[in-house]
Each structure stands twice: as C-alpha cells, then as structure tokens.
Give the backbone structure.
Amino acid sequence: MSGERVERRLAAILAADVAGYSRLMGLDEAGTLARLKALRRDLIDPEIAEHMGRVVKTTGDGLLIEFPSVVEAVACAVAVQQSMGLHNSSTPADQRIEFRVGINTGDVIVEDGDIHGDGVNVAARLEALAEPGGICVSAIVHEQVQGRLDCAFEDTGERNLKNIARPVRVYRVLADGAAPAAGAAVPAARRRAPRWAITAAGIAALVVLAAGAAAFWRLYPVQLASPPAATTATATQPPLPDKPSIAVLPFANLSGDPAQDYLGDGLTENLLDALAQNPGLFVIARGATQVYRGKEAAPRAVAKDLGVRYVLEGTVQKSGERIRVTAQLIDAVTDNHLLSQKYDRTLTDLFAVEDDLTLQIASALDVHLIGPRVTAGGTRNLEAWENLAKADQAALRHTPADMSDAQKLAQRAVDLDPNYPQALSTLAFTYFEQADFGWVKDRPAALDRARQLDDKILQLDPEFAAAYALRARLEVRWELPQSDLEAALADARKSVELGPNDGLGHFTVGFVLYQLGHFDEATAELATALRLDPHVSIWSAGLHAMALSAAGRSGPAGVPRFSCGRSRPRSGTSGPSLTRLGNTSRRICCNGWALNPDKRER
C-alpha cells in the first residue's frame, strides 16, 4: 500500500449548505426536501453544469463541488445566489431556502471520486463564515478572480479557522445581492407589490442606498457631469418657480489655507438649511451648486443654468480668531444687488452672523421665516460645529477612509454637544453608508446604530426632516425587522412636508412609491427632485427613467436613459425579463441586473 501512487490535482472547491436546515426540516420535512430537490433540478444543477463544475458529494443540506478554475467557481456561486434571491422574493421569510457558500483553491487528493485535503477543509470553514445568501472566499481566490468578474469584495481580515494551522484571510463577495436576497421579506400581512415590481424595487434599492457615492440627506449624489463652465447654461432653461427662487453658491475661502475650507462650507450649509425650511421659497439643492465651488461664476449665468431668479454668493476669511464674511444677494433678472453685506467679527460671533444674514435675505426676498430658526443645526458650541463641518466635508468625498474619518468627527461633535440634531444626523448617515457599501464587517449592527441615532434625533426634535428620511430608508431595508413600505411612504412624505426644498426627500418619496407600484405618482416626485437639482444625478435620473418607462411614458429631453444588451434567457425562468448591464452601470442595478419594463409579469 505504501507504494501506491496518490492522485493529486489542483482544483477550485466550492462548499455550500442550507442555512437553518434543521429548523426548516422541523417545520415541514417533506416539503423542504421537495423544494430543495426542485431547486437542485431547476436552478442549481444547470448553473453547475454551465460552469463546468462536478458535484463531488451531497450531505443532505450540503454540497461539495469541484471546478476547473476559481473564476468558474465564483461565477457559478454568484449566479446561483442571484437566482435564489429572485426565487425567495416571493417566499415567506420563515420558509426560505438560503445557501451559505465558501470557495477555496488548492491541491486536493482524489480517491474514488471524492476529494480530500486542506483545500477542501478551508472551503468548508469559509462556508460556515458566510451569511445566508452570501459567499466567502480565501485570499488566493480573491487574487485570481479580482478584475475578471463583475463583482466586488470586502476584506474581512485574517481568521483562525477550526483545525486549520495557519490564519486565512477571508473576503466576502459583494455581488450576491445580500440585501434583497438574504434578508427577510416584508411580512405577508403588509402590502406586497407584484413580483416584477419587487425585482424593480431591488434595482432602485442600490439607486438610493448605494449611493455612492451619493450623500444621504444634506450631501447630494455624484453628478453625471459638471457644467463645462460657470458661464455655460443648460440647453433649455427651466421655468422660474411661482415663488422666490434662490441658489446659494459655496462661500469662497480667501485665507489661502485649504484647511479652512470647512468654514465656508459650514456657513453655506447652515444658510441653505435655514432658507430651505421655508415653504415660501424655492431653494436649489446643495449638490447643484457644488459644481461652482472654486470657480468664477457669473450670477446671471448661474441663475439661468439652475432656473432661479436670485443668487447668493460670498466669501469667508479667517485670521487668528477674527473672521470676515461678505455676502451679496443678486437679482439675476435685473442685475440689481438686493443685499451687500460685510461682517468683521470674532469667530465666536459666527452664529450671530448666520442669524443676521438669514434675516436679511428673507427680508430682501419679502418672505417671512416660518417657525424658530435653529442656528448651526441646533448648537451654540463652536467646536462642535467645526467638527461637524469637517465631518460633512469628509463624508462628501465618500471613500471608506473618509467615511470613517467623518464618523469620528461627527462623534466628536456629538460628544461636545449630545443634543446636537444635525451632528447626530451626520453620524447616523456614516453608519448607514458604511453598512450599505459593505465597509463594515457587521452591517446589521451598523444599521441598528443608525436607527438608534435616528430615534434620538426625533426625540430631540420631532420636526427634524432628515430623521424621517433616514427612517424611511431603514424601513425599505428588507433584511430589517421594521421593514414596512407603507410606513416608509408615510415617513418619506413627512420629511418632504417638513423640508419642502429637500430634493433627496422628494427622491425618497418617489423611490418608495416606485416600490409600491404607483409609477405616475413616483414620476411626479422624482421630477420635483430633478428640478431642485437641475444638474442631473445618475441616481435621480436613472430611477426617473425607470418610473417613466414603467408608467408607459416617454422621458423628457435631456434625461438620460439607460440601455444595455440582452442576455440569453435561462430555460425555465419565470417572472421579469432581465438584461445584463456592463461595468459602467453596475452601481444602479440590483446584483448587476436591470428590469426590462416592457416585458414584465402582469
């Protein structure tokens, strides 16, 4: 026997098992076995064959599969998990069959068709680390697959695996659509949209939640393109609203020190917040004016570009503890200067400058400020305000490192003033974005932290619009126990009622209406969001285009429509027609798939 040759080969190994199999069997043994058998026949085995896999063995609730390459193994796993997500969208949460998957590659021993060795053991341990509906891979798999498949990875660090001598670096695959596929469904007692609409809602989920580079309530989404120059207006000027309309340009930092940019940004933000809460004004979103930051902008051209009558521009200069603030309010129709003001104050007087400017702008526009003004988002602590302004700057850059920095700065602001609603709001935003983009290991915990902070904001200020927008976004997360589309719609509408000039609030209402299948209403809300931010964002424009299409209407000129090549249909596939998107549009889709509204299930 000692001279018998042992067969070895390099293989990619996929280990999978059913999450909660014992519970499912306890609920309905015969039904679970029948459903698992049907899934193998109709969904899983065809994918394995397509990717040249070989089922080595089954263990009741588990599978061990060998592939000729790691690329085929990961591609198969992603395809299966995506298909399972669609399959489970119409299945009650307690009856779902969800797989955990682990993938490794290495040298294996082949014996009587079975495979053994360290490579197999590591794959099994990785599978145990995966979330239901998720995929975990080893570092060597990540290295070989990265850049070859349309999926992203999260590095979860080195892990000590049971009975494995060396630590293994583990990566989580982010293309599996864990949010809609692995999460719990909206309870049956709540209103459920048709299956095709649920799939479309999944698409929209990344529009609003992946945002990328999108900011949440005060930090607006990445633009498709900046205007070519500050003196170039859009091809078609939007009509002026029937009430005073204003754009607040970013206040320029004249100190020569980029580290002082936060002063101008913070002042601009506070003025915008104070004005935007007034229903008697039409206030352009911050995202639309950020493209003029650091540029010479002709007020008349800016007004024409954004479709407003009035433009506020200004500068901030800090020297020691002294600041100089200048501001000009210009009527772009008549070229008259309605307000020209200069303040030389100490830095501690900044809040008084904000109060004075807000009052003078309102007076010049002949509108009354409604309700109490909450200066600097509700604090008189200058250090807390400075930390929040810097946090907002970092969050706007929207990278993992910057979001972590923003979280620390916002937490510092909250530590300095625990009852500072705007700081709590930004802090909640950082947790939400980290969870949504997979930038933290424990996403449910991050989402729960965002919810706790949001609850505290509403306790402090029951009329804080952004808190209702955040609560709506949490209520559309299907993996959370509070998932409820009807409640989300009520909260989204409350945010718009309290913040009538918040474009992202209108976007949120449109997003929830789209999920509920109310496409005409969704189109109207999304059109309002686009009007408040005339520099079209890919998120707003993309969902607006889909809502128009779902409502059977054509989009207005200038609004981008997203098209893509069609893939071959899978045999036996029912439900919505799907089309595969390329890399450039991947972030606006659910799992890289987009709904073809012309062939939806009726």
About this structure: The domain at 191-215+462-602 is CATH 1.25.40.10 (Serine Threonine Protein Phosphatase 5, Tetratricopeptide repeat). The radius of gyration is 27 Å. The CA atoms of residues 157 and 169 lie 5 Å apart. Residues 176-235, 371-376, 554-602 have pLDDT under 50 and may be disordered.
